[in-house]
Amino acid sequence: MTFSGTTLERNRKTALYPLDLELTERRVGLIGANGSGKSTLARLAGGLIRPSGGTVQVAGYDTAKDAKEVRRITGFVFQNPDSQIVYPVVEEDLAFGLKERGFPKAEHAERISRVMERLRISHLRGRLAHELSGGERQLVALAGVLVTEPDLLILDEPTTLLDLRHSRQISEHVAALPQTVIFVTHQLELLTEFERVIVLDQGRIIADSDPDDAIARYKKAMA
Ligand SMILES: Nc1ncnc2c1ncn2[C@@H]1O[C@H](COP(=O)(O)OP(=O)(O)OP(=O)(O)O)[C@@H](O)[C@H]1O
């Protein structure tokens, strides 16, 4: 993934100053203060928004020109699970994502079982999504993306509502995934095994390093 002179303006305010970034690692963490531009960068990477200037290339596609292709190979998990759970019953919701991405119906049940077991949420399969707790919904939203096995997984604070056990489980699960993962989080301990951690501050990259170094610099910047 390549960002070249990429910027993002919103309402004449700069959310992201020009940045050049080549991401080749399988595990990239994004950290930084509230409003520093993490979600903006993640959304640009997933082709959900277009840069105001410069380009973003994902798997050879320009996200401004081929947003559809980029979204096809990308799974995006939002901070707020309600923005991605569509169907009333959990299982139907997971099947919807599979159907939308063209997975044969015969595979649905097995794919859903596998991911739900891995996230230890099999018991939620027949439940109504709106009756679940915030954390349970977050897990279902994550499962909804994982079932489709996207090439690129972008997780924007996917563990904010989870208890310690589930956060760790997600982190272990993510560690075992073969795909490329971009992980936005304020839970710094979830990134200790990551290959690369980028620190944003007021729309600029202030550190880009290994987890220990990047986290230390982030803490210093926040002191
Ligand atoms: N839809 C929007 N319209 C206008 N401004 C926005 C919009 N989304 C984000 N912003 C602004 O862009 C800047 C960067 O926001 P962004 O969501 O990328 O930050 P973040 O680092 O993900 O923050 P947080 O840790 O709070 O989730 C902020 O100043 C924010 O107010």
Explain this structure to me?
The protein has a six-stranded mixed beta sheet with strand order 6-7-8-3-9-10, sandwiched between helices. A four-stranded antiparallel beta sheet has the order 2-1-4-5, covered by helices on one side. It is globular and about 45 Å long. It has one domain: 3-Layer(aba) Sandwich (Rossmann fold). It is α/β, with parallel strands linked by helices and 223 residues long. The model has no long low-confidence stretch (mean pLDDT 94). The chain has seven helices and ten strands. The structure holds adenosine-5'-triphosphate (ATP). Adenosine-5'-triphosphate is lined by residues 10-11, 15, 32, 34-40.
Largest sheet: 6 strands, mixed
Strand order of the largest sheet: 6-7-8-3-9-10
- Tell me the series of helices and strands, N- to C-terminal: EEEHEEHEHHHEHEEEH
CATH structural class:
Alpha Beta
What is the number of E strands?
Answer: 10
Summarize the SSE layout with pairings:
Layout: E1 2-10, E2 13-22, E3 27-32, H1 38-45, E4 53-58, E5 61-62, H2 67-73, E6 74-77, H3 90-100, H4 105-118, H5 134-146, E7 152-156, H6 164-176, E8 180-184, E9 196-201, E10 204-209, H7 211-222
Helix pairs in contact: 3-4, 3-5
Bound molecules: adenosine-5'-triphosphate.
Organism: Notoacmeibacter ruber
Keywords: ATP-binding, Nucleotide-binding, Transport
Protein name: ABC transporter ATP-binding protein
